[in-house]
Amino acid sequence: MNNLFDLTGKVAVITGASSGIGVQFAKALADQGADIAILARRYDKLEPLCKEIESTGRKVLAVRCDVTKEEDVKLAVKSIIDKFGKIDILMNNAGVTSIGSVDTLEETEWDRIIDTNLKGVFLMSKHVVPHMKEQKYGKIINTASVCGLIGSKAIPLHAYNASKGAVIALTKGMGTSLAQYGITVNAIAPSLFESEMTEKSLFQSDYLKSYNMLCPAGRPGMTGELNGAAIYFASDASSYTTAQILFVDGGWTSV
């Protein structure tokens, strides 16, 4: 029987790959056989991951890219196509968060969150989708969040809520209209996972204690617990799955 999760011969692009979930996604897809392009604004942070993936025998390309700038995105996509000849999988993972209510947020902070979390998905998809249409095949996986579906009484995350809710809606729109070209578009929506983005805010003792009490699993997510979702959406196991949002949240959105 064929291994539906085998990614040998596929080329995967992961944005926001300098830390946290992006690093996990890159390793997970490489472990399944994919060659990897890792993108981030902080190019120096990509070097350790680059070496780790290369040690597994996979080809890897590190690219400095600010996903909020279209020229950066265009150049990054060109460099990936020049090296690998194609892009099979795009993981739109670059993201930032901000604590703040609509009545206290500065406009510049609102723009920073929306530009990275939403505009970044738009720009990367804009410049990758034509290549996927041409080859009549593609897997796009967006990183959403439970915060795109529900709010938080304890900590206001209004800009983040707005950006991730929009990512969910964009995923559904893209998934339905691009299916005719052999392109699936889905999203992974995590709840609380430890990362560079959350360790100094949501992982503080008071919030974490409250989260653990309310979450059915009784704890936040751990390293590697998003890998199965990423591999499923990136592989041919999900060939008839599109415009779907998979909440990997320990049951958080069901209570």
TrEMBL record:
GO molecular function: oxidoreductase activity, acting on the CH-OH group of donors, NAD or NADP as acceptor; quinone binding
Flavoprotein listed as a keyword: no
Annotated keywords: Oxidoreductase
UniProt-listed InterPro entries: NAD(P)-bd_dom_sf, SDR_fam
Cross-referenced Pfam families: adh_short
GO BP term, example: bile acid metabolic process
Superkingdom: Bacteria
NCBIfam families: PRK07231.1
UniProt family annotation: Belongs to the short-chain dehydrogenases/reductases (SDR) family.
Name of this protein: Gluconate 5-dehydrogenase
